[in-house]
Amino acid sequence: MNREINTILIAEDSAADAEMAIDALRAAKLANPIVHVEDGVEALDYMLHRGAFKDRGKGNPAVVLLDIKMPRLDGLEVLKQMRDNERLKRIPVVILSSSREESDLIESWNLGVNAYVVKPVDVSQFFSAVQIVGQFWAVLNEFPQQE
Amino acid sequence: MHWPNWTKGLETRLRILLLGVAVLASVALPYAIIRNSANETLAASEWVVHSAEVREALLELEFNMSELESLVLLDLVEVPPGERRPRYEAIRPRIEPLIDRLADMTRDNADQQSRIGSLRVLLKGRLDTLDTALQQLRQKNFDAVARTLKQGAETFGSRETSSAIVAAETALFQQRQARLAESMLFSRWTVVAALVAQLLLLGSVIFVSERQVLHRQAAEARARLAVERSRIIVQTMREPIAVLDTSLRVLMTNEAFGEFYRPPEGEPSGARLEEHGDGAWDSPSLMQRLLDVGARGRELWDFELEQASADGIERDVLVNARRMELSEDAEAAGERTILLTVSDITARKRYEKRISELNEDLGAKIEQVSEINRELESFSYSVSHDLRAPLRHIAGFAAKLGEHIGDAADERSRHYLEVISDAARRMSSLIEDLLEYSRLGRSALRLGPVDMNALVAELQAMYESGNEERSINWRIGRLPTVIGDEGMLRRVWQNLISNAVKYTSKRERAEIEIGADSSGSGEVVYYVRDNGTGFDMAYAGKLFGVFQRLHKASEFPGTGIGLANVRRIVGRLGGRTWAEAEPDKGARIHFSLPAVAAAIPDKVSHHES
């Protein structure tokens, strides 16, 4: 299986959360490069090779970790645009949010999210949750290769 | 229609027939009887006269015979017989016809006939004797005369026979007189009886006709009363009523009509409808519809109209009109009329307007409330998202700091880091609880029948499996099913049962009793009783408040949101919550739910059992 190593894209506006998540993923010793963007617009730019990411290499992320509440374009809107896009609609998306609100859960699943994880306050739980998500979607999960 | 009339006709005819029979019986029958008995009386009196005549004729016969005999005897004793001879010759021929007359008169009586027959023979003998004696006298043979006479008297003595005839006739006479008297008595009684019968008949006829007159008068009075009543009803109706002819001339109106619509000057009755009420009836389409009602019998149903009434108020009215079918005769004579009624719906219209205004207001208020709810929602959302992030960071970076310092950290630094993490965790759970409390207050109720027994059994199993080392004596009664939100009611039971488990944790033998009482009026009361720590009733008022705790956190952990949630849920389902307790004896927490909700599924479960 000759497989290109895809990135793990984290869209998270909170620097502290992002730092913790990146730390956790690094601690899991995954081969996938980690890309961090700070809002929804940047996330789409990355995936669609636009703006600052015009010149990045080919390939879709192995998994996208999306926060819901972000400036400019929130996570749910990003998810919606991904599912409407022929090239992006099969990329696994995990919502990583503080919100346990029913309405957020319902909308996420209606839009076809692959997993929804509520950020635990306990740091060790948070670490293990992010590590599990990374390992599962970036390593274990198989999905059809694009292009 | 025809059937009762026909029966009535038959009845009348029968009555007349019966009356005729009665008149006949009381007049004609006595007449016939009296006539008959008068005839009988006449006949009887004729018979009486007849008897007298028979006797008279017999006496005349006897007298004539005696005169003849005495003439012969005078001739015998007196010398010059000269002038007696013509007398004898004159009387002699009377005898035969007299006997014939007697025979004729007694033709009906055989006994008398035979007697008269023998009398005829005897008298003939005597006459022959007299004739012989006269012959002998002329021959001057006086001895022979005496002998002949003597012999004749001996041979043809008719006295006995005469007497017998008279006696028989007298007996007949008496008999006939008696019959006459009897017949007269009978006819007298008949007359009396007939008179009485006639009086009775007359009396009953008078009685019956009098009664009928009274009946008719009462019926007429009733009819008058009914007419008067309907007139009063029409007059006192608050709704204007008018009766029109087919060319819309007003024939009759009630008082309300007059109050609403000023009648035209001069002659109000017979004026056209448009002339009433200063132009209130000017609507040409209404007039056309009313003419249609008259001409084609089409009903006018709730025609809405705005009118200025006589008191100057602009009114909304509903006009109804229909052709009145009075009777076939009136119809045939072209006397069709239209009944016009007017209902004043001004007030109703005003209320409708007010209601729609209020509805608009209400809509605006609901909009406001929804707006507030939306704000509240976004506020909670912000709280849940934004308030928890820094906490996560505090806890996370405190942990990272601990790792970073590693073994170099002294005991005190480790303690500080611990306190920081604990505080963050605690605040996190407080926020979590607050969010849940707020969610319970605003999320929609999903109502349905909830089997409380199943809920409690499920939770009991859950708490037993988590506390195998403890000895808990559960006593669970029958819990009526209610209409409620199952998720919320699970939360209620979960809070109450977990409290009971928690506050009995220091007991050797914990007792938890769960039951319900539905005998109260209109509600079912559920309760959870334990023999745990209990609390002082002085603080009972704080028990159901948010984050209110009656025990030290070091003794029993918790944020103090549980019973606040219970109160909020039960309140939303229309019930109440309250508690009884004694320190160190245990507590009993009650909550009620409306029996309306409890009663319906209770019946369902009865059917199932």
Automatic annotation (TrEMBL), chain A:
* Gene3D superfamilies, alphabetized: 3.40.50.2300
PTM 4-aspartylphosphate: at which residues?
A: D67
Entry keyword set: Phosphoprotein
* Matching InterPro entries: CheY-like_superfamily, Sig_transdc_resp-reg_receiver, TCS_response_regulator
What sequence ranges are listed for the domain Response regulatory?
Answer: 7-134
SUPFAM superfamilies linked to this entry: CheY-like
Q: GO BP, one example?
A: phosphorelay signal transduction system
PANTHER family in the record: RESPONSE REGULATOR RCP1-RELATED (PTHR44520), TWO-COMPONENT SYSTEM REGULATORY PROTEIN (PTHR44520:SF1)
Q: What is this protein called?
A: Two-component system, unclassified family, response regulator
UniProt source species: Dokdonella immobilis
TrEMBL record, chain B:
Organism superkingdom? Bacteria
Q: Which PROSITE patterns match?
A: HIS_KIN
Example GO CC term: the record gives: plasma membrane
| Major enzyme class | transferase
Give start and end of each Histidine kinase domain: 382-597
- What GO MF terms are annotated? phosphorelay response regulator activity; phosphorelay sensor kinase activity; protein kinase activator activity
- Ranges that cross the membrane: 12-34, 185-208
Its UniProt entry gives the catalysed reaction(s) as: ATP + protein L-histidine = ADP + protein N-phospho-L-histidine
- Keywords attached to this entry: Coiled coil, Kinase, Membrane, Phosphoprotein, Transferase, Transmembrane, Transmembrane helix
The residues forming a coiled coil are 348-375
Write down the InterPro entries for this protein, in alphabetical order. Answer: BphY/WalK/GraS-like, CHASE3, HATPase_C_sf, HATPase_dom, His_kinase_dom, HisK_dim/P_dom, HisK_dim/P_sf, PAS-like_dom_sf
| Name recorded for this polypeptide | histidine kinase
